[in-house]
Write a structure and sequence with these properties.
globular, 169 residues, single chain, mainly alpha, two-stranded parallel sheet
Length: 169
């Protein structure tokens, strides 16, 4: 029998549901610290998340992942990406992107297709900036990325090949 004093509790939550005022229409990794603080204040010791692995375009279930390794970039808080900020951050969004962002933030449910398209567009632009300014120039950030690629090549090489084929077909 477990003594009452040794009992612990927590909550299970899908990350996509943790939308904050800073989120781009879906809960993001950066929303987790606030949840953790709230849980701790409520006496909860654990937070269990639904799967965070990358899902196929068009899918919405966190159980429809394409990989056991890669996290879904839909959960990245784009304004926190250094290279997005270097592109001008939110001020770089054109009128259409601002409209989409306002719509997905105001939506009662996650609008996966629009959120994914908007984030993909700006993450791709940020990545291309990173390649030009960091990777090509061999900066410390560029070298850290190369080290990550080498360290994770045991799964990353096959995954990027799969994603390229998946996108093409």
């Amino acid at each position: 029998m477990i003594a009452a004093s040794s009992r612990q509790s927590g909550i299970g939550v899908p990350l996509f549901s943790l939308v904050s005022s800073r989120s781009w229409g879906i809960g993001e990794f950066a929303d987790l610290p606030a949840l953790g603080s709230w849980c701790a204040a409520a006496g909860q010791r654990y937070v269990q998340l639904l799967p965070l692995n990358e899902i196929s375009p068009g899918e919405t279930s966190p159980y429809s992942s394409m990989t056991a390794m890669a996290l879904d970039p839909i959960y990245i808080r784009v304004p926190d990406v250094e290279d997005f900020a270097a592109l001008g951050g939110d001020a770089a969004l054109d009128a259409d992107d601002r409209r989409v962002l306002a719509e997905v933030r105001a939506a009662a449910r996650v609008r996966y297709a629009e959120v994914r398209a908007l984030k993909s567009k700006w993450l791709r632009r940020a990545y291309l900036r990173f390649v030009d300014e960091e990777l090509v120039r061999g900066t410390p950030r560029g070298e850290a990325f190369r080290a990550y690629e080498a360290r994770e090549s045991w799964w990353l090489d096959a995954y990027v090949t799969f994603r390229a084929i998946h996108a093409a077909h």
